[in-house]
Amino acid sequence: MDLKSNNAAPVLTDPAAPMNKSRLGMHSRLLPYSPPLTVFPPGFLLAIPRKKTGILDEFRSSIWLDAMKSSSPPPKKITKDVSNEYPSTDADVAYNAWMAKYPSAIASFEQIANHAKGKRIALFLDYDGTLSPIVDNPECAFMSDAMRANVKNAAKYFPTAIISGRSRDKVYEFVRLTELYYAGSHGMDIMGPVREHICNDMPNCIRSMDEQGKEVNLFQPAGEFLPVIDEVFRSLVQCTKDIIGAKVENNKFCVSVHYRNVDEESWTIVAQCVHDVLKDYPHLRLTHGRKVLEVRPVINWDKGKAVTFLLESLGLSHCDDVLPIYVGDDRTDEDAFKVLREGNRGYGILVGSAPKESNAAYSLRDPLEVMEFLKSLVTMKKSSAL
Ligand SMILES: O=P(O)(O)OC[C@H]1O[C@H](O[C@H]2O[C@H](CO)[C@@H](O)[C@H](O)[C@H]2O)[C@H](O)[C@@H](O)[C@@H]1O
User: Fold this and answer.
1) Which InterPro entries does this UniProt record tie to the protein (predicted)?
2) Ligand 1 site, residue 256, Cβ cutoff 6 A
């Protein structure tokens, strides 16, 4: 498959972007793996309408800018106790209405615990903004020792996986817990437990070994894109080098272009750069994260599919006694929330305090509350075992 073509049309917008205002972790030395030339099954490559022009036109540019601006709203500033009967501002009224729709997973813990009775919980955790607070420098998004201890403890009781937009190696370096499963690059790089039929049925799934010498299944559905992603990463570094504050991060099967530290007046320049580079790559698309433009292959794979894949790998699919819980803060986590909501399979929990529409069932304000929630799950499990 020709992954680069001059017949290509320009960059695609994230369908989720607003259209108007309105385990086994391996360390960085991943075993060498050259993916076979894949014949993707029908429907695996997403068909996305394109527009051929080298210039980010005004209309598209405003869509991009709206999406860029709304991508990471500041946390809600509480004017007073908004659970109070008499909220003081319109924002508080809106916040209360939002909280009624996405109640706190801590305040509603009894409800969650009732639903979990007799069920096996499987935990899926996003990293940035969920286990670690959002910080200006992506290289410094460390999780606290307390959070690490709580995640470690939770993994003693529930199968636990991290599903991140970062490269799998990078997120493992931050988390450093060998008892978890890891999916990097928005689920496009999964190291999971060995299950015979899984690798037989899926192209780009191979048997491999983790750093501890344990056999694992390594699933990299976008394996063929590796050279293209490298090339695009280098071009993006080159074209953004003069934009103060811009940072390009290679996440193996996707690339992040950060604009958190770029002056807002220069955001269009960042958008134009990304657009200019991507116009020659019809098999790459763009999605929006928190003050980050994410470039990724157009394959039909996302965090939701990664959850389904991991549940299958863990032998927890199609079981009535399994309750998957996914905790995440970002737009890309919505795919996982949706998968759990759709079959009434489990719960998505959105981390954040800025009201936004979501497929999640509950909410948590910030990583500190995520930690509290993990503690409560463990306490519940321990008491039910007594
Ligand atoms: O799926 P995730 O684990 O949430 O990863 C999504 C992106 O997270 C990181 O960027 C975000 O967090 C940074 C550190 O707090 C912050 O500086 C940046 O503005 C956020 O967008 C990571 O750097 C990206 O590569 C991930 O795709």
Assistant:
1) HAD-SF_hydro_IIB (IPR006379), OTSB-like (IPR044651), Trehalose_PPase (IPR003337)
2) yes
Identity (one letter) of the amino acid at 121? Answer: I
236-282 residue pLDDT tens: 999 999 999 999 999 999 999 999 999 999 999 999 999 999 999 99
Residue of higher predicted confidence among 384 and 244: 244
User: The whole model's pTM is what?
Assistant: 0.86
**What residue owns the CA closest to ligand 1's atom 21?**
290
- Token pair listed for 320: 């009535």
CA of 187 to the centre of ligand 1 (A): 14
296 C-beta closer than 6 A to ligand 1: no
- CA–centroid distance, 88 to ligand 1, in Å, is 33
Rounded Cα distance, 146 and 354, in Å: 25
**288: Cβ contacts below 8 Å, ≥ 6 apart:** 14, 16, 17, 67, 68, 71, 294, 331
